[in-house]
Amino acid sequence: MDAQRTDAQILQELEELRQRIAELESVEAHHAKDDQPPNESDYFRMLVENAHDLILVLNADGSMRYVSPAAQRMTGYEAEELASRNPFEFVHPDDLSEIVEKFSAGLSKPGHIEHVEYRSKRKDGTWFIAEAVATNLLENPAIRGIVINIRDITQFREIEDELRKSEERYRFLVENLNDVVFTVDTQGTVLYISPTIERITQYEAGELVGQPFMRFIHPDDLPGLLESFQRTLNGILEPHEFRVIDKDGSLLYVQTSSRPFEEDGRAAGLIGIMTEITERKHADEARKRSEESFRAMIRKNIHYYRGS
Fold first, then answer.
1. Number of domains making up the chain
2. What is the pLDDT of residue 186?
3. Would you call 59 helix, strand, or coil by DSSP?
4. Three-class SS state of 99
5. Are the C-beta atoms of 259 and 271 separated by less than 8 Å?
6. Is pLDDT of 114 > 70?
7. Which among 55, 113, 116, 160 is placed 20 to 30 Å from 147, CA to CA?
8. What percentage of the chain exceeds 90 in pLDDT?
């Protein structure tokens, strides 16, 4: 009886083992299926449907055959809503003629790629700036359409426009200052000098750019200026006065105030302001001569009265 029970137990264990093996084989087959890469059409479909750019496929007559899911995020329209619409109805009227012309011209050029920028209308009535790249794949048997990748570049253009306006304001400010704005590199080569230089010297700004500033400094003032230049590069800010040799050889007194500017975390040169002080220096010298003359006259009178 014990032997029969033992055999029954063994048979039961074998049956349970067979079931376990079958389960493991089933799980392994399932994992193997999951590990297999999707077929090529599924792979590219997933890429397109998850692309950040809006992708359209147009027929030769301009009707839409495919609209990617990015349409909702970019335009507010669901892909199904756009699929039945004329794509040109979303183009700004001022941009429409150019877009239609380029589309028509590209139809006769298999493989032709066209880059365009235009304003496109969202569902809420607002406009965004679209950058589109259209590729004529009408003769490609796998596509047979015109593939268009559209990107919303509104924010980029707004930043670009603001930078341009800032540069224009800065340029207007610099070019209309009474003082000269300049930049030089660490070797003293003039990188930029504002047009104001043409009001106080006989040089044009373009004649000075690319030249070492030492070339225009009075020899007696050069050693002190070079020392000041090096101290300023090292972060010691100080105004400095010196004489500049004008184009005709005449001398101008100037005062500069500058500070280092950096590129990649290292001092790349100086940016500063130069003020002409010739009249002030002449006035100071005249005042000093007058004071000395006055003191001399006083001393002379004192000696006279003492002598008397």
1. 2
2. 95
3. coil
4. helix
5. yes
6. yes
7. 160
8. 58
- Are 94 and 201 contained in the same domain? no
Single-letter residue type at 242 = F
Rounded Cα distance, 111 and 140, in Å: 9
Q: Are both 206 and 151 inside the same structural domain?
A: no
Q: Distance between CA atoms of 260 and 258, rounded to whole angstroms?
A: 7
Kindly tell me the sign of the dihedral angle through the C-alpha atoms of 7, 9, 15, 20: negative
Asked, for residue 166, whether it belongs to a domain, the answer is: no
In this prediction, residue 115 carries a pLDDT of: 93
Residues 141 and 46 in one domain: yes
CATH code at position 92: 3.30.450.20
Using alpha carbons, select from 148, 135, 142 the residue that is nearest to residue 57. 148
* Same domain (yes/no): 153, 184: no
Residue 140 φ/ψ region, left for φ over 0, alpha for ψ in the -120 to 50 degree band, beta for the rest = beta
Residue 204 and residue 113 share a domain? no
Residues 143 and 137: beta-carbon distance below 8 Å: yes
Mean pLDDT of 78-98: 92
Q: Is residue 72 part of a domain?
A: yes
d(Cα 127, Cα 113) in Å, to the nearest integer? 25
At 5-17, the pLDDT tens digits run: 555 666 666 666 6
Amino acid at 54: L
Could you give the CA distance from residue 214 to residue 245 in angstroms, rounded to a whole number?
10
Say whether both 91 and 153 belong to one domain: yes
Would 308 be classed as within a structural domain?
no
**Do 220 and 263 have their domain in common?**
yes
**Helix (H) / strand (E) containing 41:** helix 40-49
**Residues 47, 154 within the same domain:** yes
Q: How far apart are the C-alpha atoms of 114 and 135, rounded to whole Å?
A: 7
Identity at 177, one-letter amino acid code: L
pLDDT confidence band for 3 (50 / 70 / 90): very low
Q: How far apart are CA 125 and CA 145, in angstroms?
A: 29
Q: Is residue 57 part of a domain?
A: yes
Quickly count: other Cβ atoms within 10 Å of residue 246's Cβ. 14
Please say whether the beta carbons of 77 and 123 come within 8 A: yes
Q: Say yes or no to pLDDT of 75 above 50.
A: yes
